Amino acid sequence: MAAFLYRLGRFAFRHRYFVALLWISLLTLGGIAASQAPASGPTTFAMPGTESQRAYDLIDERFGGRKADGATAQVVFKAPEGRKITDPDMRKVVESTVDELASGSEVAQVADQFKAKAVSANQLAAYAQVTYKVSSAELSDHSREDLSGAMAEASRSGMTVEAGGAVQNETKGSHAAEATGLAIAAVVLLLTLGSLLAAGLPLVTALIGVAIGVCSITALASTLELDSTTSVLAMMPGLAVGIDYALFIVSCYRSELADGRRREDAAGRSLGTAGSTVIFAGLTVVIALAGLAVVNIPLLTKMGVAAAGTVVLAVLVALTLVPALLGVAGSRIKAPRQRKKSVHTAGAEDGGTTAAAPNMGSRWAAFVIRRPVSVLIVGVVALCALAVPAASLKLGMPDGGSQPESSTQRKAYDLISENFGPGFNGPLLAIADAKDSDNPKQAVREVSAALKGIDGVSTVGPARFNEAGDTAMITVIPETRPGSSETESVVHAIRAEGGDVMDEHGGRLMVSGTTAMNIDVSQKLNDALLPYLALVVGLAFLFLVLVFRSLAVPLKAALGFLLSVAASLGAVVAVFQWGWFSSLLGVTDPGPVMSMMPIFMVGIVFGLAMDYEVFLVTRIREAYTGGRTAREAIITGFRHSARVVTAAALIMTAVFAGFMGSDEQMVKTIGFGLAAAVFIDAFIVRMTLVPAVLALMGDKAWWLPLRLDAAHPRVDIEGDDRHDEEEDEELAAVLPGTHT
Questions:
Q1: In whole angstroms, what is the distance from residue 521 CA to residue 114 CA?
Q2: DSSP, residue by residue, 286-337
Q3: Which of 96, 233, 402, 425 has the most crowded CB, counting CB atoms within 10 A?
Q4: CA-to-CA distance for 24 and 240, rounded, in angstroms?
């Protein structure tokens, strides 16, 4: 492979303008296709295999085309200070607003709060439940504007009017987080590469790859039923690996220049070594993202495949466009300056020679391998301590209480909680299927009575039958907030006790609604986490065996990743579930961790972690196969790789941490989790535990059984062996006793 990539690098360098024009043409075509593509249609959030989805399907079938997942809005009215919502003038305003809302073309029903008894016991507040004929994704801007206009008109009376639910126009967040992350990335690249032009090249190529990927997703959004979230998910890993891969190749190119290579040859050799790393690292990312299909959530599968496609583009850009732009830049990208100083080398009679000064990576590796046991114990104990909170991880989906305090959704949520009870923010919908029952109405009466006796149930509404009279919908209000573990227990109790009653009558009971759907989503994602981990770690283990021709190194990589995931989840639980440092980090409402966060973190961070593992250990193996001892190879590998891996990890940590400034609790959680995971994995696992374990194992780290070695395909990833006198002299400086 290294030989092929060497030729590819020279070809791209030599035909630099042709390659650059090809990528610019692809970007242009992608932009044109995206601009002319039809707007994406509604995205169906199906949850195959869950009870809540089966209940939705039954409603669609039995209730005359009623859309089970139709959008809803809870419009809350609170009387001014000293007034009551039941005062004649206040009541008139509320009824007028309800009539106006009911006239909307997409509105299916608006419950009269005075008839539905949706007035608080203190008569200070009331709420109207607005049900639409279409889902939130399909709801038109006109309907959203009608809702906002009606609320604004009602608020002129002096009462407070807020709306909960998912029908409000989402606040278009600024791109300040992304811009801040890119600015930090530019600074780190500049400090790492020491050249404005060299630092700008990884940013430009990463943005080109991401732009082509996002344009492709936009162009196919209508055909494949993709939503805007797909582009965001694809952008995050695409930008991350795009910068990392280009940084690896540019850094290797400048090292080759420092060794006196001609520029074209340096481009070929950098691609022959770093390019091989990019390919195998990219494969692990693609495996992790495409592996989201095991969760069996169609929308999540599409997101994973789209993100994997963007990563493939990042790999192709790194292998072709980066060497082409290196050719375009020519002599303006220079070799790094070599710091020289006098160091005493073993056996030197003159007392010292002028050699390359050991860099920070060499000194750190030498420190670790002199005391590997102590470093390993401290590192593992620290990771285990961080992982302790993960044992109490509770997953859930965000509700109105996680919205920014300034949003109308959060204000409506708080008003309902204060005046009615937190459970009114997440009503449950029990579906009694009595089609096979001898007496459907009796069955429904008995199940309603049973539901009223369940602990944690606040209110059970009257049953609403379909036209055939064989299926009923029953609204159940829990006592606790939608995202709490108590509400989850209520859902399970309804399904168990209500199900037993319906079984006696030959029917069945299912629980649905947004709250129940969120609980089912959380459970499904929780159940899928371990199989997903097994899939990505197992396949990556096989790839790493192929790359390193070793069993111990891939096993170490997988175990290290599991440690870093556990520690990162522990940090997330401590902050967002337990509330540690919550005020410092702007966490206003600690509670269950968003259910999609762990599996997203595993997918994205696994790919980035394997990037650092492959890039770092490849250089160590390269030195080992080139004749270095096991301990010398570690120092040599860190000499070449530590600076780049450190820079890449700092860039990604900063980019992800930038999202912690968001007002959205969900975005804040993902940003914190990804930043913590990258930092822990890069600096504690890869940069500390890896050299300690390799030093303890010595030559055994590279052992492979003879039979497996004979059947193992030969993958030329290191390319030509490297060995030079400056490295000999540096090793003598940082590792006494080395013979040169």
A1: 35
A2: HHHHHGGGGG--HHHHHHHHHHHHHHHHHHHIIIIIHHHHHHHHGGGS-PPP
A3: 425
A4: 21
Residues 6+ apart with CB under 8 A from 413: 164, 399, 400, 401, 403, 425
- So what's the pLDDT on residue 705? 78
Query: What is the C-alpha to C-alpha distance for residues 323 and 325, in angstroms, rounded to an integer?
Result: 5
Check if the beta carbon of residue 609 is closer than 8 Å to that of residue 564: yes
Q: Residue 237 in contact with residue 273, Cβ under 8 Å?
A: no
Query: pLDDT tens digits for 487-510?
Result: 889 999 999 998 898 988 888 999
CA distance 700 to 633: 13
Long-range CB pairs of 177-185, under 8 A, 24+ apart, other chains included:
177/658, 177/659, 177/661, 177/662, 177/671, 178/655, 178/658, 180/658, 180/661, 181/654, 181/655, 181/656, 181/658, 182/655, 184/651, 184/654, 184/655, 184/658, 185/243, 185/651, 185/654, 185/655
Start-to-end CA distance of the chain, whole Å, equals 31
Q: What are phi and psi of 510, to 5 degrees?
A: -125, 150
Helix (H) or strand (E) holding 356: strand 353-356
Neighbours of 301 (CB within 10 A): 16
Q: How many other CB atoms are there within 10 angstroms of residue 374's CB atom?
A: 11
Question: What value does the mean pLDDT take over residues 66-80?
Answer: 78
Q: What is the pTM of this model?
A: 0.78
Whose tokens are 């030559």? That residue is 699
For the chain, how many residues are written? 740
Grouping H, G, I as helix, E, B as strand and the rest as coil, residue 139 is coil
Scan for tokens 């692990």, then name that residue. 284
Are 62 and 468 contacting, i.e. CB atoms less than 8 angstroms apart? yes
